[in-house]
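Reopening this one. Same input as before:
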Amino acid sequence: MTCSGYSGGVHDSACSIIRTSDGGYLIAGTLADQMTLVKITSAAGFSWAKRYSYASSSSFACYMIGTSDGGALMVGYARPSGGTNDILVLKIASGGDLTWARRYDSGADEGPGLSAVQAPDGGYVISASRGGAPLIFRISSDGNTVRWSSRITMGSAFGGWANGTLARSADGGYVFGGSLSGDYMLIKLDSLGQHPNCVQACPLTVSTPTINVSSLTFTLSSAGPSRNSYTDPPSSLTLDTLRLTCSSLYDKTEEEADGTKRAVSCSWFPWGLRFDADERMDLRIYFPDGRLACSREIGGGATTIPLEAGVYLWQAGPYWGKAVVR
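Same output, byte for byte:
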């Protein structure tokens, strides 16, 4: 059994892994605020790593699927300085070369691409969010054309952040499962992304961003036994053999221990935390070293708070806990 860790600095994260035809694995993640792929062998040995740098924006990977041609499709989002988030999709060849990159914008702040499936014609169906509701759209095999785009509103406006995952159904449609306004949701869409009285069209503008692909080179380090490092200044990628320990993300409060419902709950999404509170109370979020990261009032529904990746401690009225942002 092999356990290996790859680190390139602060706020690195892996979001998805698929098995490749040679028995190895492809890992999608974010390194130095840019989408990154790492190819490893079946024994976790390093094969290659590529970073896909968006020239005018940070980019973050959230999901990846293998494609019928042996490559991969990465979905996530682009975060320009001072701008709104847009959905970012990269098509990658089997050796890590970039086949194409597309950015999808509805004119508002989109949530990240969270899931994808390949359609029978070689195109793709992707789930994201817009205005607190799920957004599901289908693109052509080259990403240039949006075949259809549906925002799931269930006939009314929902607040809060939506997330979920997609699956193809046997009749050629798609099933979306996730959360909406704090509730579980499962909806079946037909092959054109429709469901009576539950969706509305959401036009998307397609653009081709400039993506610079760089290789993270492999070198063998003598820093210790079973240690390899991969360098590409100013970022570096290191492979370490780790010992894992398991601990809970937070300790139960008295309210949780006796089975009663908490008046506030905390959940994670890819670029922050969501708090649901029945009554108004002051919220404080701290870094592990005790520094204050955020302070605000919550209550009367859902509150989403953007945060960088990391571990946080939070306190809301008499309630407290720990949370991880990835």
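So the earlier flakiness isn't reproducible anymore. For the record, The radius of gyration is 21 Å.
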